[in-house]
Specification:
The complex is a heterodimer of chains A (178) and B (652). With 178 residues, chain A is α/β, with parallel strands linked by helices. Chain A contains 6 helices and 7 strands; from the N terminus they run ααβββαβαβαββα. The N and C termini of chain A lie far apart (76 Å). Chain B is built from 20 helices and 10 strands. In chain B, the strands form 2 sheets. In chain B, strands 2, 3, 4, 5, 6 and 7 form a 6-stranded antiparallel β-sheet that branches. Chain B has a 4-stranded antiparallel β-sheet with strand order 1-10-9-8. In chain B, a hairpin with a 5-residue loop joins strand 9 and strand 10. In chain B, helix 1 runs antiparallel to helix 3, helix 10 runs antiparallel to helix 11 and helix 15 packs across helix 16. Chain B starts with a helix and ends with a helix. The chains are: A alpha/beta (178), B alpha+beta (652). The interface between A and B is large, with 41 and 52 residues.
């Protein structure tokens, strides 16, 4: 019997290797296809700045918006922040923040120090909305059309080039409507 | 022409390593002495050809040969020469070539400095390293040759190296880290040789130990340098991010730490043999796994390397062959190695075992946290992320428990100790550390912080128990100096390394509790106070670097009206990639860092300025240096040289 125990490390390794094998065929940056062109999930969560205010999907339906998933524990979010400020300044599309698994005090402090590019922030302390959205990790950015349908997902830091691409997508809609 | 010579040399090196993997191993298993003696010259030949290949790539970089794809993608004619050369390992292909260079270097070193090793053992060790080299060099040649050309037309200039990497940190951090990663291949090879020959005694541990300690010290140094580099280069004062790539280096270090201790017990007391073998296999496996995670792109990371599933597949196969093979061998052969002595429940053996378990649990925790998103994804349960909250929540308590056991393990003796003797030794350190732990948070900062109490107490506990044990050595000594000389160097090494752990723990506790920072809009003449220091912004001017333009700010720091230092943080724009970089300026000192970084330019010549006050942050890295130094000190111990001479005499 003890001799069989010695095979445990080998077995564990095979289990691990099987997962790594599977992992190779998965792109972590890929959106679960189920959500693209589907409505943004329903939610009811407090606002970051005003805890008593409850936000739902209705608060941003009616115009195209960017939903940006961020957290103070995420170093890449800090890197991304400057670009978000640029987008906010251009006033072409409102940015809704989804503060993900974070602490309210820290998040408020962050916005005060680094500037606030968001129209408002959804405070998703438990990460439930993040789960529904299929958030892989912060930062992530979703482009929603006026009907609240998810049209595009960007995983990782949004840089100037990505913003140009997003603008093209938005422009595309404009021409269709006209 | 030169790059083709490089490629050709690498192909020859591959053939040499194949022969090295086969012939001496076969000789050792059949008892053919002549075939065994081939190991040494083959190790030398392999090293020689990889060096040639490496020099060729270096030459291509120094001559701006942009017909070579790898050079064109990672260099630029404007780059200063030291960055051109360190750009050799600025990307995937070159990093792998550095891996191969260091691996063949270690192989060569083992063949040179193991005169005491019996011939069959040496032949097996070198052959196992030859197998690893075969895997890596064929990986290089098949999926990622750094010598591929852009032909017939090639770019006039290179695409430049990522500005983040154009820094002193890139010159030293990767080579150190790889020395550690690859160094564990020596311990691995020794373990396999032991399993194959069925011979694993104190002599075996004495041969394997110095190599393991050196590799462990390098890995620790590499991690320390990486943390320091991130701190000053990323521009916001963080020093550890629980990023998959960082975790990939932390895991082998943790298991390596367990291995270093387990080897000590095997050498001194002949115990934990099969555990030592398993740790040696795992330390190297985790190094390979780290390479897999970084290079395959299965995890998203802030270290945005170009990733490629084909390469991932190749490394996974390598991992499966080495690990599957060695663990099968372990399962079959490990029953042959038996521990030689017994010990009671209160003995150093038991506490080393406890600490090994803690270290292994920590490594598993980090592994789970790193792979969890991947596991969940592979099971089709969705996509999730694990952030620092998870790691801090599980890591910190285990570390505290381990630090407590660490203090005890120094005070207990091998084989057996009485409870009374331990209490006699340890009551004083316990009182001192709890008292100081209470006093410190009350006098430093505002208000009592429980975490500071805990952190300071356990750190001082580790330190004071080491010192008490050290003082105890002098009780029956005739003169202090003679006793100082009597104590073996490895004992001093242990002390230094343990103090290093305490120093790092103090640094972590204090910098994560008492750091202060402010982000401000500052105009010329504006002044701000932070932690008792006055920071005055005196405007910016433009400076020109070799391949960038920068706005350089002048910020004068004063304390109570006395001038302390003038800091000059920069915001750089690199010409080629048009990339912005924040270059922080730091006034370092033992008890605090003042850290200033420029944010964005605002209207009317104002700037967003970020100012940090980082108390005791240097202690983090100081402790890391002490640990590595302690590891090296142990290797310098006389007994590894004396015994080898004696052994040679008996074998002759």
């Amino acid at each position: 019997m003890p001799r069989l125990l010695l095979f445990i490390p080998l077995l564990l390794f095979f289990v691990l290797a099987a997962f790594l094998w599977k992992g190779l065929s998965i792109d972590p940056r890929e959106l679960p296809s189920a959500l693209i062109n589907k409505p943004f999930p329903e939610f009811s969560l407090p606002a970051l700045q005003q805890p008593e205010r409850i936000l739902t999907k209705k608060d941003f339906i009616g115009q195209p918006v960017l939903v940006n998933v961020w957290a103070t524990w995420c170093p890449s979010c800090r890197q991304e922040h400057e670009q978000l400020l640029v987008i906010a300044q251009a006033e072409e599309i409102p940015i809704i923040g989804l503060n993900y698994k974070d602490e309210r005090d820290l998040a408020l402090q962050w916005l005060q120090q680094l500037g606030n590019p968001y129209q408002f922030n959804i405070y998703d302390e438990e990460g439930m909305l993040g789960l529904d959205l299929g958030v892989y990790g912060a930062p992530e950015t979703y482009l929603l059309d006026a009907q609240g349908i998810i049209r595009h997902r960007h995983v990782g830091v949004l840089i100037a080039q990505d913003w140009q691409e997003l603008k093209l997508i938005i422009k595309g809609w404009g021409s269709v409507e006209n | 022409m030169i790059p083709e010579i490089g490629e050709f040399a690498l192909i020859i090196a591959l053939f040499v390593s194949v022969v090295l993997a086969l012939i001496p191993m076969y000789g050792a298993s059949t008892g053919n002495e002549m075939w065994m003696t081939y190991a040494k010259p083959l190790a030398m030949g392999q090293f020689f050809f990889v060096v040639i290949s490496f020099i060729c790539l270096g030459y291509a970089f120094s001559q701006d040969d942009f017909s070579v794809v790898y050079v064109a993608q990672h260099s630029n004619s404007q780059m200063p020469i030291q960055f051109k050369l360190s750009a050799i390992w600025g990307g995937h292909e070159g990093s792998l070539l550095l891996w191969a260079l260091i691996l063949s270097g270690w192989t060569f070193a083992v063949s040179r400095f193991s005169k005491a090793l019996p011939l069959d053992m040496l032949a097996r060790v070198l052959s196992v390293m030859g197998i690893v080299a075969t895997g890596f060099i064929s990986f290089l040649l098949i999926t990622s040759s750094p010598f591929a050309r852009y032909l017939p037309r090639f770019p006039a200039d290179g695409a430049d190296l990522n500005p983040l990497l154009q820094d002193f940190g890139l010159i030293v951090h990767p080579p150190m880290l790889y020395m550690g990663y690859v160094g564990f291949s020596v311990a691995f090879a020794f373990a396999i040789a032991a399993l194959l020959s069925g011979r694993m005694d104190a002599a075996w541990a004495r041969w394997a130990r110095p190599w393991t300690n050196i590799a462990w010290a390098f890995l620790g140094m590499g991690i320390t340098l990486g943390s320091w580099w991130a701190y000053y280069e990323l521009g916001w004062g963080g020093w550890w991010f629980w990023d998959p790539v960082e975790n990939a280096s932390l895991m082998p270090w943790l298991v390596g730490t367990a291995l270093v201790h387990s080897l000590a017990a095997t050498e001194k007391r002949g115990v934990f043999k099969s555990w030592t073998l398993l740790l040696a296999i795992f330390a190297f496996s985790l190094s390979l796994l780290g390479t897999f995670l970084v290079r395959s792109g299965v995890l998203t990371s802030v270290h945005a390397f170009a990733s490629d599933p084909e390469r991932g597949f190749f490394i996974l196969m390598l991992l499966a062959l080495t690990m599957g093979g060695s663990l099968t061998l372990y399962a079959l052969k490990a029953p042959n190695v038996k521990s030689e002595s017994s010990f009671s429940w209160l003995s150093r053996e038991v506490f080393l075992l406890i600490n090994n378990i803690f270290l292994t649990v920590m490594a598993v925790t980090v592994l789970l946290g790193t792979l969890y998103p991947l596991l969940i994804d592979a099971l089709g349960l969705g996509k999730i992320s694990v952030g620092p909250p998870y790691f801090n929540a599980v890591f910190v308590p285990i570390m505290c428990a381990m630090a407590i056991a660490m203090g005890v393990s120094v005070a207990v003796r091998w084989r057996e100790t009485t409870v009374k003797a331990v209490l006699n030794k340890l009551w004083l350190p316990a009182v001192i550390s709890i008292l100081c732990g209470l006093i410190f948070p009350l006098t430093y900062g505002n208000g009592f912080e429980v975490r500071v109490f805990l952190g300071i107490s356990v750190s001082l506990w580790v330190m004071s128990s080491v010192f008490t044990e050290f003082m105890g050595k002098f009780r029956n000594a005739q003169t202090i100096t003679s006793r100082l000389k009597q104590l073996p160097l490895s004992y001093y090494g242990m002390m230094v390394a343990h103090v290093g752990v305490a120093v790092t723990a103090i640094g972590i506790t204090l910098v994560s509790t008492y750091s202060e920072e402010r982000d401000m809009r500052m105009q010329k003449g504006d002044s701000v106070e932070l932690a008792g220091y006055q920071f005055t912004f005196q405007g910016t001017h433009v400076v020109k670097g070799a391949n960038y333009m920068a706005d350089q700010a002048t910020i004068v720091v004063t304390e109570d009206g006395k001038s302390i230092v003038t800091l000059s943080p920069e915001k750089r724009r690199y010409n080629v990639k048009n990339a912005m970089m924040t270059e922080a300026d730091i006034d370092p000192s033992l008890f605090r860092d003042l850290y200033v970084a420029l944010g964005e330019p605002l209207e009317k010549g104002a700037w967003a300025v970020r100012i940090h006050y980082k108390p005791y942050v240097r202690w983090l890295w100081l402790g890391g240096i002490l640990m590595a130094f302690g590891g090296l000190l142990t290797v310098a111990d006389k007994r590894y040289r004396q015994r080898s001479v004696k052994l040679e005499a008996t074998h002759a």
